[in-house]
Amino acid sequence: MARQRQYATAADRQRAYMERLKSGVPAPSPQKRQTRKLSRPKRIEALLSEAEDLLQNYTDWLEALPEALQETEQGQKLQDTITALEDVVAALESIEAPKGFGRD
After folding, report:
1. What's the pLDDT at 88?
2. Nearest to 50 by CA among 17, 88, 83, 24
3. What are the contacts of 93-98 at 24+ separation with CB within 8 A?
4. In the prediction, which pLDDT does 103 show?
5. What is the domain count for the chain?
6. pTM for this model (two decimals)
7. Is residue 54 situated within a structural domain?
8. Helix, strand or coil for residue 55?
9. Distance set, CA 14 to CA 6, 10, 20 (Å)
């Protein structure tokens, strides 16, 4: 089944295009292409990787502080953050997500 022509000739189509340009009517924007999401197990792996990176960064930061500053409020907050991140990493490592489709 052929599409019905909107314009009789190419000249009509071009004339309509030029009129749209002059009138300031915006051209229809192309639809955004949907990106494919990672699978749930891959997203958990990505979260684990990010949490491990954060844990390493905060640990390096705490170790780089001089001894005198490690006992301050900032040092204590860093230690609390490291402890919380260790708990997060342990929780993420313990997750065994179902693979689905009978592959469990």
Report:
1. 96
2. 88
3. 93/48, 95/44, 97/40, 97/41, 97/44
4. 62
5. 1
6. 0.61
7. yes
8. helix
9. 12, 6, 10
- Give the 3-state secondary structure of residue 80: helix
d(CA 33, CA 57): 35
Q: Look up residue 78 and give its two tokens.
A: 């860093």
Is 15 a domain residue? no
| 13 occurs within a structural domain | no
- Residue-wise pLDDT tens for the chain (104 aa)? 567 778 889 999 899 888 888 888 776 677 777 778 888 888 999 999 999 999 999 999 999 999 888 889 999 999 999 999 999 999 999 998 887 766 65
What angle (nearest 5°) sits at the alpha carbon of residue 60, between those of residues 58 and 66?
105
Token pair in block for residue 39 = 């699978």
- Cα separation, 34 vs 51, in Å, equals 27
| 14 within a domain of the structure (yes/no) | no
CB neighbours of 37 closer than 8 A, spacing ≥ 6? 43
User: Could you list the residue range(s) of the whole structural domain that residue 75 is in?
Assistant: 38-104
